[in-house]
UniProtKB/TrEMBL annotation:
Spans traversing the lipid bilayer: 5-26, 32-54, 75-98, 134-154, 183-199, 211-233, 263-287, 308-328, 340-361
Keywords: Membrane, Transmembrane, Transmembrane helix
Record organism: Paenibacillus glycinis
rRNA processing found in the keyword field: no
Protein name in UniProt: GerAB/ArcD/ProY family transporter
Acetylation among keywords: no
Superkingdom classification of source: Bacteria
Listed InterPro entries: Spore_GerAB
Length: 385
């Protein structure tokens, strides 16, 4: 089961390479971006390790079940709704951004709204599946995409067009103090572990997370790559002129492999798949949060039939996403996203610390949970545990 934790970390960290995180960091390249990334790496690593330590004490339980152990259900509903909105917003922003990219680089004659509708239909079907199915789809998607993306990043590092002098120039500003927005943007790269607020339902009581040291190393490398490589290709000033900086950066690379020449087409296809998987997980998480607010109803982790409530809730998510894209343009979406990233960082920190406090002051209930785990735990681990 350890690999599924790292799958979520890898998904979120790689996906942020194509979205607004590099743009926000580059805007602060002279005003504390490097120190903000360093602080985010420390805080993100500490939160991830603390989070997994806490969730290990609640095997087979997601956030709704944990909250219900310590709080009456009416008090848990606002918390779960806030969490559902955060996951819905992350998924909707991602799909909106990629619908614009697909429209711009693949089919400019088609409205980005039409592209978004088709993406929502795909995610609707995927998100309504069981939690077990969702995490299996994540595994297959990463097995397909990650080797190709890593290969393309390796080509970028070895490109003769990469100007290391521009990278060294920006690195001289390492001693500028951290800022809130670049810190929050950098912290987003480390936030894949948050998906285990629901995927923890799949963990068996003997779950152990090995190779924890890999999380800060991988996320830090992706963070540095997303920031410095565009600067090396476009210069210290030119890098700030692009919103989707990595789409332009990938278009500067070429390959001589048969019919594949422009890297951008391969790059966008891989990230289209990752964005759909990310949205699938986000909508599934939000759906499960909202279902936990409804009258209690026992459901298996891998039910034989998809409940109707899944379609209703995820259908509402799709309508809200399309409505968001209809009401707001790219500039407005950028402003909303920059503020949302800061809010998300605050919610993430508060959520992890809140669950940690519950684990400290609920030792009696944790013992009761463990003693009844074998009889109440109906979730089968993907590893067969």
């Amino acid at each position: 089961m350890s690999r599924y934790f790292f799958y979520n970390v890898i998904l979120v960290s790689l996906l942020n390479l194509m979205l607004f995180v590099p743009y926000l960091l580059i805007q602060y390249r002279y005003k504390g971006a490097i120190m903000s990334m360093l602080c985010a790496a420390i805080v993100g690593t500490a939160l991830a390790l603390l989070f997994m330590h806490v969730m290990k004490t609640f095997p087979g339980k997601g956030l709704p079940e944990i909250l219900r152990l310590f709080m009456p259900k009416p008090l848990t509903i606002p918390i779960l709704i806030v969490c559902a909105v955060m996951w819905l917003t992350a998924s909707s922003i991602t799909m909106y951004a990629f619908s614009v990219l697909i429209n711009r680089f693949f089919n400019p004659d088609t409205s980005s709204l039409v592209v978004l509708v088709f993406m929502c239909l795909v995610c609707m079907y995927a998100a309504t599946r069981s939690t077990l199915t969702v995490i299996f789809v994540l595994e297959v998607g990463l097995i397909v995409c990650v080797p190709i993306i890593v290969f393309l990043l390796f080509k970028a590092f070895n490109s003769p067009m990469l100007d290391w002098d521009a990278i060294r120039t920006v690195s001289h500003y390492w001693n500028r103090g951290p800022q809130v927005k670049p810190f929050a943007a950098s912290l987003f790269v480390f936030t894949g572990y948050m998906n285990f607020f629901m995927f923890n339902r799949l963990n068996s009581p003997n779950f152990r997370l090995r190779f924890r040291w890999g999380t800060p190393i991988f996320c830090s490398l992706i963070l540095l790559t997303s920031f410095f490589i565009p600067i090396g290709f476009h210069g210290t000033e030119g890098a700030a002129d692009y919103l989707y900086i990595w789409s332009v950066t990938s278009d500067t690379l070429i390959m001589s492999y048969g019919f594949i020449e422009r890297v951008i087409f391969v790059f966008l296809l891989m990230y289209l798949m990752l964005s759909l998987i990310f949205a699938m997980i986000g909508w599934h998480m939000g759906m499960e949060m909202i279902k936990s607010c409804l009258p209690e109803k026992k459901e298996a982790i891998d039910p034989a039939r998809t409940p109707r409530s899944n379609w209703v809730i995820v259908g509402l998510f799709a309508v809200l996403t399309v409505a968001y894209a209809y009401w707001f343009n790219e500039k407005e979406n950028l402003k909303i996203t920059s503020h949302w990233i800061v809010l998300r960082a605050c919610v993430e920190i508060v959520s992890v610390l809140f669950v940690f406090v519950l684990s400290l002051f609920g030792s009696g209930k944790r013992k009761k949970l463990v003693s009844h785990e074998n009889t109440s735990h109906n979730a089968a681990s993907p590893d067969g545990a």
